[in-house]
């Protein structure tokens, strides 16, 4: 193990934790009440807690290669379970999918040959194929490779937000107006956070409200939810 990690543990135990012990004990006594679920890339340069300056107990975080959310029906696993627990048990009111610049997973998507020794990564990235197709077929052919990588990461966030809505716990919370969805893109080199407004990504600024991908508004597919008056009623 790298000595910096061992030293970090020692510093935490010796001088950080003693000053925060009451906060940690309160988090155990009262239980966690995280403000949001953030699904981010496992990339070591993209730390949701650091970007949002959140402390222990404030964020429920799920990280994986490519900030991917498998569609509900195709795969059960860690991401699905984290979503369900965050929405049903913890009652989070916001879910964020956070992509980023210089993403290795997105590079792998652009160059499948580079993944020949990583069959699990290649299989995992199939959940991002829609984003790849969007960039290949809907964007100009002569797009610069650096720009292509960037728009692929952006489109991937949008695709994963779509997958998120296929999870029953998410779909139900959205219909009840108890959940908002957010798509973020973190530009590592500038520290800029871009947020999806349902149409495009906008750079965050302090004097404008946070763009939201899907705002929390209760909705019904019928004009009269209390009566059984549906489409085609006589
Ligand atoms: Zn990444």
From TrEMBL:
Record has Signal as a keyword:
no
Obligatory cofactor(s): Zn(2+)
BP GO terms, sorted: carbon utilization
Query: Which EC numbers does the record give?
Result: 4.2.1.1
This entry's Gene Ontology molecular function terms read:
carbonate dehydratase activity; zinc ion binding
User: Which keywords, in A-to-Z order, does the entry hold?
Assistant: Lyase, Metal-binding, Zinc
- Summarize where Zn(2+) binds, as residue positions: 41, 43, 100, 103
Query: What does this protein's record comment on cofactor binding?
Result: Binds 1 zinc ion per subunit.
Q: Does the keyword Ligase apply?
A: no
Cited SUPFAM superfamilies: beta-carbonic anhydrase, cab
Catalytic activity line of the entry? hydrogencarbonate + H(+) = CO2 + H2O
Name the job this protein performs.
Reversible hydration of carbon dioxide.
What family classification does the UniProt entry report for this protein?
Belongs to the beta-class carbonic anhydrase family.
Protein name per UniProt: Carbonic anhydrase
């Amino acid at each position: 193990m790298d000595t910096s990690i061992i030293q970090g543990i020692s510093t935490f135990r010796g001088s950080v934790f003693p000053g925060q012990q009451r906060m940690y004990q309160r988090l155990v006594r009262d239980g966690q009440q995280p403000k949001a679920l953030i699904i981010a890339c496992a990339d070591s340069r993209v730390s949701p807690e650091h970007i949002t300056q959140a402390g222990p107990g404030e964020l429920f975080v799920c990280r994986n290669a490519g900030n991917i959310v498998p569609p509900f029906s195709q795969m059960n696993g860690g991401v699905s379970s984290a979503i369900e627990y965050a929405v049903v048990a913890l009652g989070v009111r916001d879910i964020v999918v956070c992509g980023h610049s210089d993403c290795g997973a997105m590079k792998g998507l652009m160059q499948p040959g580079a993944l020949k020794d990583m069959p699990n990564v290649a299989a995992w990235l199939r959940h991002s194929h829609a984003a790849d197709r969007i960039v290949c077929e809907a964007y100009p052919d002569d797009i610069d490779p650096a720009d292509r990588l960037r728009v692929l990461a952006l489109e991937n966030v949008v695709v994963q937000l779509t997958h998120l809505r296929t999870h029953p716990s998410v779909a139900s919370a959205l219909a009840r107006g108890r959940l908002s969805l957010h798509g973020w893109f973190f530009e590592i080199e500038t520290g800029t956070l871009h947020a999806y407004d349902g149409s495009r990504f906008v750079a965050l600024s302090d004097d404008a409200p946070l763009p939201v991908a899907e705002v929390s508004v209760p909705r019904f597919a019928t004009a009269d939810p209390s009566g059984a008056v549906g489409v085609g009623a006589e």
